[in-house]
């Protein structure tokens, strides 16, 4: 009944929080001044929205290092909405818009990591990303129904360090903590 679902949800939320804290505790560095630094870096959404390409992202990574921002604690490069294309018909992995990311996400991830930076990427809990619902955009796929495939692709194939899971669209049967979020926490705990 409803009471069982509530207890199950509460248990899943508690487990996810514990695992998330465990993942955050591994390798997290902070100044020894009593305060933790928030994740700091550059996101493609602010100032560029979907108008992004691989050259821009590589240039931002280069600039973050050469300007001294990386040395000051800025260590993340996030690609927001605008990169995903329809899924592969066989593997169901998310497609990458090849004309704007010609070397692919793994190659870009390796480049960002070679600069000592962390790589973040965007998805949405619904069937489409936020841009995917706009008539001027292709139908960019979200993670609904493909949570495990996406978590494996991001963590293992592309070596993504952080995923922004947006809230556009509804995935039938979703709990407040989406299956994708639970799988990311579990994937993190296995690394």
Based on secondary structure, the structural category is: alpha/beta
Task: Summarize the biggest pleated sheet.
Answer: 4 strands, parallel
Secondary-structure element series:
HEHHEEEHEHEH
Provide a count of the helices. Answer: 6
How is the largest sheet built, in terms of strand order? Answer: 1-2-5-6
CA(first)-CA(last) distance: 36 Å
The radius of gyration over CA amounts to 17 Å
User: What's the β-strand tally?
Assistant: 6
**Low-pLDDT windows of residues:** 18-22, 24-28
Helical fraction: 25-40%
| Strand coverage percent | 5-15%
Mean pLDDT: 82
Tell me, what's the shape?
globular
Please characterize this protein's 3D structure.
With 191 residues, the protein is of the alpha/beta class. 39% of the residues lie in helices and 12% in strands. It contains six helices and six strands, in the order αβααβββαβαβα. Strands 1-2-5-6 form a four-stranded parallel β-sheet. A two-stranded antiparallel sheet has the order 3-4. It is globular. The chain starts with a helix and ends with a helix. Residues 18-22 and 24-28 have low confidence and may be disordered.
Which characteristics define this entry?
two-stranded antiparallel sheet, alpha/beta
């Amino acid at each position: 009944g409803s009471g069982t679902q509530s207890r199950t949800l509460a248990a899943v939320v508690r487990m996810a929080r514990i695992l998330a804290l465990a993942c955050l505790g591994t390798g997290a560095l902070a100044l020894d001044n009593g305060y933790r630094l928030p994740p700091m870096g550059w996101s493609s959404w602010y100032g560029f929205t979907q108008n992004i390409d691989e050259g821009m992202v590589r240039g931002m990574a280069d600039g973050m290092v050469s300007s001294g921002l990386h040395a000051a604690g800025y260590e993340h490069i996030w690609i927001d909405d605008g990169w995903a294309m329809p899924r592969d018909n066989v593997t169901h992995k998310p497609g990458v818009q090849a004309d704007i990311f010609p070397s692919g996400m793994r190659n870009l991830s390796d480049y960002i990591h070679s600069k000592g930076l962390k790589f973040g990427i965007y998805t949405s809990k619904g069937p489409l990303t936020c841009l995917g619902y706009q008539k001027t955009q292709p139908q960019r796929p979200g993670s609904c129904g493909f949570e495990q495939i996406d978590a494996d692709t991001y963590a293992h194939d592309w070596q993504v360090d952080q995923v922004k899971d947006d809230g556009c669209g509804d995935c039938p049967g979703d709990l407040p903590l989406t299956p994708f979020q639970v799988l990311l926490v579990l994937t993190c705990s296995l690394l």
